[in-house]
Amino acid sequence: MSSSKFTAEYLKEMAEKFVIDGDVISVEPYGTGHINDTFCGTFKTAKGSTRYIHQRINHNIFKNPEGLMDNVERVTKHLRGKITARGGDPLRETLTIINTKGGGNLHKGTDGTFWRTYVFVEGAKTYDKVEDLKMVYEASKAFGDFQKDLADIPGGRLVETIPDFHHTKKRFETFEQVLKADIKGRAKEVQAEVDFVLARKNDASKIVDGMASGALPERITHNDTKFNNVMIDDVTKKGICVIDLDTVMPGSPLYDFGDSVRIGTSTAVEDERDLSKVGMDIGMFERLSEGYLASAKAMLTAEEKALLAFSGKLLTFECGMRFLTDYLNGDTYFKVHRDGHNLDRCRTQFKMVSDMEKVMNKMDAIVRKYC
Q1: Is the pLDDT score of 334 beyond 90?
Q2: 3 state SS for 86-111
């Protein structure tokens, strides 16, 4: 459902379902997200205007919105306690849920949509492109702080909002099934890419097997560690608030660090056709490692630290394998805008994997430097 399908009257009515002091002035589309529909609501109060973020949760992807919001409520409540204890500002350093007038954290519309509202974090913003290498350090440190602060959250296990999201072993098994079925007859065209995946079967199992055996602990992780999921303070330029908490769930911190390496060290766009432009920036890897370990090194076990460099390779491999799986299956999951789009994406990821394999010793040395 596109945000353009919601009328001003509809959005005003939705915003009024939440406990907000003031009258609605406007509710306008906000941000560049592709999953949920996001709006900024401006309200007139006795002290001036106040802003809030309203979001429609995409329940086609997040099939348990209630469980998802229970996760977010538990996580943000725990983070507020940590932030307050160290003298921070919880209204700026974590998301703050605004309850509905019925007392819940989620409003279900009569049209079957699910809505939530957060306090707008003023004086900070997200960046789609890196403007300064210091920002890379700050964003990576913020994700490390996030994991560290949640290491002692009380209560039972969080809900898996997308089950097996980073279960690389199951992703590999799905790839094998799709390859065998070859419903579009494309396998013969991509033998080199297929061979690339099959040659790394053992890699796919390393982290999940370690977690299953207890050698690697299960922790609470973000699972979408893009640079633009950290808000950067306008004045201090520090990473102050981790956002987009929909995929916060049980996992391994190796998933988070590995995915930040996949995204943050690439020298080209994800669907670049000229593979000579594609590679892994070792300098960017050092900034990510330095920032993340400045926060997380005291929390991580020796076994986790030993796999940090490998995790970058693994999460990049996983993503490329998913693109290839979707290509073989007829492009049913990822949106494509041209013939072979998923194949182009797959090839950029595999090029990065190859580059990482060539410098894995250097990556390990960088990790040890900051441990």
Answers
A1: no
A2: CCCCHHHHCCCEECECCCCCCEECCC
